[in-house]
Design goal:
This protein is of the alpha+beta class and 357 residues long. The protein has two domains: 12-147 and 213-356, no CATH class; 155-205, no CATH class. It has helices spanning 2-53, 57-93, 96-102, 107-155, 218-230, 236-249, 251-264, 273-299, 305-329, 334-356, and strands spanning 161-165, 168-176, 181-189, 197-205. The protein has a four-stranded antiparallel β-sheet with strand order 1-2-3-4. A hairpin with a 4-residue loop joins strand 2 and strand 3 (181-189). The longest helix has 52 residues, at 2-53. The chain is elongated. The N and C termini lie far apart (67 Å).
């Protein structure tokens, strides 16, 4: 009996290591790819700061580091879903998952090692959403304010209209050293398409806004919600931010259930890596479309912040649970099989088209 338990423990340990080893390399590859894609637009703006504003490279590097947590809270769950579909997808194509099932390993036993990894990634994502991203946003806002304070005075030209800011014209009679104050100021604000605001002032000072919900630490956010509720003020923005931070932390668990289920469901034909990429992009688009819908409904106070921000987790998680039931019963899905055939036909058509050229 003891020998049997020992063998079972060893088998579980080997299975844990083997499955995680298949998922971890594509996870880091996907993390690098997704983060790089999202950072491209921001990198262009940072380069523009160096070229047009003369901001030192060291300061731009600091800005880059402060922007990174905002993207990582999105790209970490995205990369995890891609890693599951590519890693377990390879095992499925090589019939290794089929061999595991034939040897008595159930879909639940295949799920639990990936679920262990999902919990670690969920904790890391929760840390990013709860602490790292708000702190980075606050530091980024402060750093941008320092850059503006130190350079806007020298950038503003006296007695001419300055159009350095998008859709805003600024006219100053005199810039008072060290450059944080100006006299005789006229501002033409064209950011609102329906109207044009004209602001006149004898003296203008460069300052920064108070921290918004996205820059607040967790304790500050909870205090702001409590203070506004005591004062009878609406707390939609603060509660939306709070539940978005929490719901994002559970996204890796949802993607874990979905990804494992999709690879375990019997298929009519073998698939390749491109199928994994397409499947990943489809479900990511579905998740973030539901997230955008929920945020829009929550911001307009049509839905309570809890169902609004948990909508993608509930819908995608429910679909993943249904797929896992099919995996347990070894019953294929009609829709994925049709989609597989359509994808295979499309790939074959493109190959023939290239050969004709």
């Amino acid at each position: 009996m003891f020998h049997r338990l020992t063998c079972l423990h060893v088998k579980r340990k080997i299975l844990l290591r083997y499955l995680i080893a298949e998922v971890v390399p594509p996870f880091f590859l996907g993390l690098l790819a997704f983060t790089s894609v999202l950072l491209v637009a921001r990198m262009l703006k940072l380069i523009e700061l160096v070229v047009t504003r003369g901001v030192p490279f060291l300061q731009v590097g600091k800005l880059f580091g402060l922007i990174l947590p905002t993207f990582l809270e999105m790209t970490v769950p995205m990369a995890f879903l891609l890693a599951i579909l590519l890693g377990l997808g390879r095992l499925s194509n090589d019939q290794e998952l089929l061999a595991m099932k034939a040897s008595g390993i159930s879909p639940t036993q295949i799920l639990w090692p990936i679920a262990c990894l999902a919990w670690l990634i969920a904790i890391a994502t929760l840390f990013l959403t709860m602490y790292a991203r708000p702190a980075a946003n606050f530091a980024l806002k402060k750093e941008l304010y320092n850059i503006a304070k130190s350079r806007v005075g020298t950038a503003l030209k006296e007695k001419v209209f300055n159009d350095d800011f998008p859709k805003i014209l600024i006219y100053v009679e005199e810039v008072v050293p060290p450059g944080s104050t100006a006299q005789g100021v006229l501002i033409v604000d064209k950011r609102d398409k329906t109207r044009e605001d004209i602001i006149l002032g004898k003296v203008a000072r460069i300052t920064t806004d108070e921290s918004g919900p996205k820059e607040m630490a967790l304790s500050e956010l909870l205090s702001a919600i409590a203070a506004k509720q005591d004062g009878g003020v609406q707390t939609i923005a603060e509660r939306m931010e709070l539940h978005q931070r929490i719901s994002f932390g559970f996204a890796p668990l949802v993607f874990c259930l979905l990804g494992v289920s999709l690879t375990l469901i019997p298929r009519a034909s073998r698939t390749n890596r491109s199928w994994g990429f397409m499947l990943c992009l489809f479900w990511l688009m579905t998740y973030y479309t539901l997230l955008s819908l929920g945020k829009a409904l929550g911001d307009k106070n049509i839905l309570h912040p809890i169902p609004a921000l948990w909508l993608p987790n509930l819908v995608v998680g429910g679909i993943g649970a249904q797929f896992f039931r099919h995996a347990l019963r070894e019953s294929p899905l009609y829709f994925p099989r049709t989609l597989e055939r359509a994808t295979a036909s499309t790939v074959e058509f493109l190959r023939n088209f290239k050969k004709k050229k």
